[in-house]
Amino acid sequence: MERLLVLVRHGQSEWNLKNLFTGWKDPDLTELGVEEAVAAGKKLKELKLTFDIAFTSVLKRAQHTLDLILTELGQEGLETIRDQALNERDYGDLTGMNKDEAREKFGEEQVHIWRRSFDVPPPGGESLKMTAERTLPYYRKEILPRVLAGERVIVAAHGNSLRSLVMDLEGLSPEQILKRELATGVPIVYRLTEDGGVESVQDLAD
Ligand SMILES: O=C(O)[C@@H](CO)OP(=O)(O)O
Q1: Where in the chain are the domains?
Q2: Which of 117, 127, 136, 206 is most buried, by the most CB atoms less than 10 A from its CB?
Q3: pTM of the complete model beyond 0.95
Q4: 61 labeled part of a ligand binding site
Q5: What DSSP state is assigned to residue 19?
Q6: What interface predicted TM-score (ipTM) does this complex get?
């Protein structure tokens, strides 16, 4: 049995381009973001991958990315489950702030801690740990059982909601996840063991 799980971060969003903390805000993809999503679809097509079900967040940039990928695969209209458990980490008071201006105001190190530490939440927002506390139960209840039953699953979501899943799947420590960045529109193809561990992982970066 195949036990296929593909994770993909959305393509560049309008707020990624403007360098703003985005979190639960809902900007759409830029032109480049659309191109990245189409390219992700083409890469999956080259590998002859198709899916039985898709999961995404309730945010436009992830849904739009998924739609573009499914169109490339000739799988428009595939059953898709949207849930806010897969949303980006909530950036709290930083939402909408320019990342360079935040560095000037709060200092480079503090902003890095808010963005990449495991358990320090940005003011009023979610740490990666808090994000994992919603993404992982959802993954274990709704997504993993389908993968283990042989359904081919694609998840289109966000930098930090996916980092929390990657951390768990790959058994990364808080230090290791700190350095792990997910590129926009780059699918990561996992094949899982029968108990949900990682049998193989392939990052489809160029
Ligand atoms: O702004 C955000 O919501 C995220 C993802 O774009 O940013 P960061 O990479 O700083 O976690």
Answers
A1: 10-192
A2: 127
A3: yes
A4: yes
A5: T
A6: 0.95
